[in-house]
Amino acid sequence: MSAIRPRVRASTLDGAASDLVSQQAQSADSDPAMVILVVEDDVIVRMLACDILTDAGHHTLEAVDAAEALRLLDARPDIALVFTDVDMPGEINGLGLGRLISLKTPDLPMIITTGGANVSPGDLPASARFLQKPYTPDALRTLIEQMIVAPPA
Length: 153
Hints:
With 153 residues, the protein is of the alpha/beta class. The protein has a single domain (31-149), classed as 3-Layer(aba) Sandwich (Rossmann fold). It contains 5 helices and 6 strands; from the N terminus they run E-H-E-H-E-H-E-H-E-E-H. A 6-stranded parallel sheet has the order 1-3-2-4-5-6, with helices on both faces. Residues 1-6 and 20-31 have low confidence and may be disordered.
């Protein structure tokens, strides 16, 4: 039997929900698990990624596009890593999100993934690594472990 895992979406960050997120951030301070923001517009892929990450012992937050991710990053300073797709709805894709994040928080590790777009190393922010879709759970977990031990330079 699998455990039910709470999921937090940035669109819930108004009023009382914002207070709940603040309380979760405070309780996460005493927890050694990382808080990982998963930015993916495909709900099935996003849920799968979150399940892989929570099974690996991490806490996950979800956003469906860059705008939602940026709001969540502003509200949650405890986010330790961003895992984002390149192709998303809205004016900013995953590469643009990565560039915006690197301007504000240059040391925040990011994993950028896609199954369609061509991504070269020069497209990635300094703190980012690329993971090709489709990826395996082991590939995602291994990349995160590598980034924790030796963050991108």
